[in-house]
Amino acid sequence: MARLVALQQNQLSFPPLASSLSDFNGARLQTHIQLKRKTWQPKGSLIVSASSTKKILIMGGTRFIGVFLSRQLVKEGHQVTLFTRGKAPITQQLPGESDTDFADFSSKILHLKGDRKDYDFVKSSLSAEGFDVVYDINGREAEEVEPILDALPNLEQFIYCSSAGVYLKSDLLPHAEIDAVDPKSRHKGKLETESLLQSKDVNWTSIRPVYIYGPLNYNPVEEWFFHRLKAGRPIPIPGSGIQITQLGHVKDLATAFLKVLGNEKASKQIFNISGDKYVTFDGLARACAKAGGFPEPEIIHYNPKDFDFGKKKSFPFRDQHFFASVEKAKSVLGLEPDYGLVEGLTDSYNLDFGRGTFRKEADFSTDDIILGKSLVSV
Fold it and tell me: What is the predicted pLDDT for the residue at 375?
């Protein structure tokens, strides 16, 4: 039998949901109501409601996306359990988060410890606990998802974090949800998972982010630029620097995940999620400088084919145009990003790198190779 534990003692029960989940300022109302939980009915229309208390499982949830998503769900009054291997703390106080808010969140979040690749354990523990909704944040392969579906035959909704990296490279951009996908993509496991969900009698929603950024980002997206800006170094950018890409703030992504919960318009749908503006590589370098209060950066362009970097990456983005339309999410879900690019990068810098915290130490070895050859050529 799986052990479901609260982070503080005597927190295995939760108060009923407030009659209104939050007012305009996000403050909880005190009037409580009891709502009868409904279950997903196969072959029928979606009958779950985002306004009712849900027993929610998040696969993952301690690194980046799940950290912000779990807070939003708890604030909405849901009972939230994180399924992790227990190698990282289940909660950590976020930069700028008050002691009171952190204590409130920590007292309510639950933990189910296990390895998601131990399929027998997944089946037994999830079926024993029972969940209404599953958010799969870290699933990469279809075989990791099937045991979850088998364990929860009455699951109301399965919400999956896929990737815009599944699209087939095209001259026609931005990518839309109906565009061709690449079965040979390094994200093919996510494609296979989406196919599995479509084949099952389950209510599912798939979210395809482009590049995600924001505080606690474990991918070297904005951090790569911040390291070089802080060191006063030139920023080496491949090609012309006019390649167009797209970033979405992690808090906006968490909001998107919240908006599809219990939303019948999201039933069996795929949504691209990102910022609604595109940016060039050079423009991103300048935006990062502006966000961190650095001078205009010196940008060095180079031809990647002129260098052998071994297994190291010299640049954190794919060297091509890569961006997706978010019009479907805006029109169907009413989603409007809260963060513009510079504003979002400023939030990331102020709450993370600017405080002296980052995920990876600076590595300028590939820069030095590029700059050495570039300076000789000049």
Answer: 55
Among 127, 114, 13, 8, which residue's Cα sits nearest to residue 59? 114
Q: Could you tell me if residue 86 is left (phi over 0), alpha (psi between -120 and 50 degrees) or otherwise beta? A: left
According to DSSP, the β-strands at 244-245 and 204-209 are: unpaired
Read off the pLDDT band of 373 (50, 70, 90). confident
Alpha-helix residue ranges (DSSP H) falling in the chain: 65-75, 99-108, 119-129, 146-151, 188-199, 222-230, 250-260, 281-292, 327-333, 341-351, 365-377
Q: Is 225 exposed, middle or buried (0-12, 13-18, 19+ CB in 10 A)?
A: buried
Task: Give percent above pLDDT 70 in the chain.
Answer: 85
**How many angstroms separate the CA atoms of 56 and 69, rounded?**
11
What the block records as the tokens of 27 is 């403050």
Who has greater pLDDT, 125 or 95?
125
Residue 133's CB is within 10 A of a number of other CB atoms, namely 24
Beta-bridged to residue 157, according to DSSP, are 133
Least confident of 45-59, 94-108, 168-182, 255-269: 45-59
Query: In which band, very low, low, confident or very high, does the pLDDT at 4 lie, cut at 50, 70 and 90?
Result: very low
For residue 295, what are the CA distances in angstroms to 279, 286, 289, 332, 368?
A: 19, 9, 6, 41, 21
pLDDT per residue as tens digits for the range 224-245: 999 999 999 999 999 999 999 9
What's the CA gap between 329 and 269, in Å, rounded? 10
CB atoms within 10 A of CB 306: 11
Amino acid of residue 288: C
Q: What is the average pLDDT value for the chain, to the nearest integer? A: 87
* Sign of the dihedral defined by the CA atoms of residues 278, 283, 284, 286, in that order: negative
